[in-house]
Design brief:
- The complex is a heterodimer.
- By secondary structure, chain A is α/β, with parallel strands linked by helices.
- Chain A has ten helices and ten strands.
- The longest helix of chain A is centred in the C-terminal third of the chain and has 16 residues.
- Chain A is globular and about 45 Å long.
- In chain B, α1 packs antiparallel against α10.
- In chain B, 48% of the residues are buried.
- Classes of the chains: A alpha/beta, B mainly alpha.
- At the A-B interface, α2 and α3 of A face α6 and α7 of B.
């Protein structure tokens, strides 16, 4: 469904991605591991159209999407949950959700069904509907960021370090929502530092180093044999 | 020197009336700055164009309300075209680029106005002509009406931003342009629409101001300067702050005019601007960020 083929990306003059090739199949959870600064977030931003690749191909459902505007990509079914969450801080929880919900094709019944679904996964958001997004705790903001992405009914979610800075209890909740989304057929490209969570949630894992994919294996293999993880991530 | 109480009251009313017209201009300017980081130095010239379009409509139809509507719509469409052709390609560049571009637009619009309508002032006939007694003065009802109309337009803008679907798009884009795009909001279109709204509001101010001061091709600069002062004093991009600052600055000038000549009274606005920049650069009406 999503294919990156030999993608090169620059920020100004610094060369960040040196030919990244990744594939995510429909309905699949794929992990992307690597140390800080190896280009994981940039890979997601490149898919989302926020960074333009200088070379290589980005394909989504058979069409080239490199250079397309992010709002078109959102309409095609790609949602992005950024690392820093980027909640609209002055908008209420409900208004944050409405940024994805107020679009053509969503009638009142569907709207209610979608809201009920996220409130079932994240009950705390239902209690805080009219509270400003900026006043939520870090964990609540993470839930809102994921819930907001779900409002787009995406085919794939680009999930950037969702457990960063969260309490262990909330990490379990994130794993649960990844599973719920996956059961509904949503593909997820999961960037993480949390290795156990990634191995547990994903079917396949890519390991990046210095802007390239160094290793690619089924998550089950990496769970069974820790030497690869140790080699690239030092843990 | 004692100033009679009734003069102070009269100047208070004058200050509020002038402040509301200014608020109508400044809220467009601050909305545009907030969402695309563009300081529109041609904003006052949109007021001027609105005044001329209004005057032309009245000349043919004789209907003030039609003129108000026509000016707002025509200049909003014109503003959308202006944004799409000259500002959209520059968004995200060095602020100096857009300042120079809008300054250039301002000069072009002024020259166009003098070519099209000539140098003499057009006066717009007010829709109501009565006066009421305010102490020893015959105070025109129309002045109060402009304040009310301006307040109504600003109130409508507030409701639109607060509750409307597109209002949420505008606020989301103002807060985080990148995330708004990622949520499927067509940000370039939102920018154009906001510029159009700001332009339409400026044009409406031009028509409302027409009966009070007359319309000439050079009234724009004064509006731009005053609106710019207000936007800085109120906090760049802060709509509520701009409205409060419009009234604050206009009251300040009105009271100053009791002591010095009105032309000199303008100086207090600049003093307020400089003091704000020195001591509260985020604006008088926002908490200083920690």
């Amino acid at each position: 469904m999503l294919t990156l083929d030999n993608v090169h990306t620059y920020y100004g003059k610094s060369h960040i991605l040196h030919g990244v090739s990744i594939e995510v199949k429909s309905g699949e959870v794929v992990g992307l591991l690597g140390r800080n600064g190896v280009g994981k977030s940039t890979t997601l931003k490149t898919v989302m159209g926020l960074v333009r690749p200088s070379e290589g191909h980005v394909m989504f459902e058979g069409r080239s999407i490199a250079g397309m505007a992010p709002h078109h990509l959102a309409h095609l079914g790609i949602a992005w949950v950024p690392e820093d969450r980027r909640i609209f801080r002055l908008l209420s929880v409900m208004e944050n959700l409405r940024t994805g919900l107020d679009r053509s094709g969503v009638d009142e019944t569907k709207r209610k069904a979608m809201l009920d679904k996220v409130y079932a996964s994240f009950p705390v958001l239902a209690d805080r509907q009219s509270q400003a997004g900026g006043t939520l705790s870090g964990g609540e903001q993470q839930m809102l960021a994921i819930a907001r992405a779900m409002m787009l009914e995406p085919k794939i979610i680009l999930l950037d370090e969702p457990t960063e800075g969260l309490m262990p209890r909330m990490v379990g909740q994130i794993l649960e929502i990844i599973r719920v989304l996956n059961r509904e057929g949503v593909a997820i490209l999961l960037v993480e530092q949390n290795v156990p969570l990634t191995l547990e949630a994903s079917s396949r894992v890519y390991i990046m180093e210095k802007g390239v994919v160094k290793h690619h294996a089924p998550a089950a293999d990496l769970r069974a044999d820790h030497t690869v993880i140790h080699q690239y991530l030092g843990i | 020197m004692a100033i009679p109480l009734e003069q102070i009251l009269i100047q208070t009313i004058n200050g509020i009336v002038n402040g509301m017209i200014l608020a109508l201009v400044a809220s467009g300017l601050t909305l545009i700055f907030g969402i695309m980081d563009v300081v529109n130095f041609a904003h006052g010239d949109l007021v001027m164009l609105g005044g001329f379009v209004g005057a032309a409509t009245i000349a043919t139809t004789g209907n003030f309300w039609l003129a108000l509507l026509a000016a707002a719509v025509v200049i909003a469409v014109f503003g959308a075209a202006l944004q799409a052709t000259t500002l959209r390609p520059l968004i995200g560049r060095d602020p100096l680029t857009t300042i120079l571009a809008t300054f250039g637009i301002s000069l072009v619009l002024q020259k166009y106005a003098i070519w099209q309508w000539g140098p003499s002032a057009r006066r717009i006939q007010e829709p109501i002509t009565g006066n009421f007694n305010l102490f020893y003065l015959q105070y025109p009802w129309y002045r109060l009406l402009t304040a009310l109309l301006a307040a109504a337009i600003i109130g409508a803008l507030y409701l639109f931003l607060r509750y409307g679907k597109y209002g949420i798009w505008i606020r989301a884009t103002t807060q985080d342009r990148v995330m708004a795009q990622a949520m499927g909001i067509p940000v370039p279109l939102v920018h154009t629409a906001v510029f159009a709204i700001g332009a339409g509001m400026a044009a409406a101010s031009g028509v409302l101001f027409g009966p009070l001061g007359g319309v000439t091709q050079n009234i724009g600069l004064d509006f731009t300067l005053r609106a710019f002062i207000v936007v800085v004093v109120g906090g760049m991009g802060n709509l509520g702050g701009s409205i409060l600052a419009s009234i604050f600055i206009s009251l300040l000038e009105a009271y100053a005019a009791l002591i010095v000549s009105p032309a000199q009274a303008v100086i207090v606005s600049f003093v307020a601007l400089i003091l704000t920049l020195l001591f509260r650069p985020t604006g008088l009406f926002v908490p200083t960020p920690k």
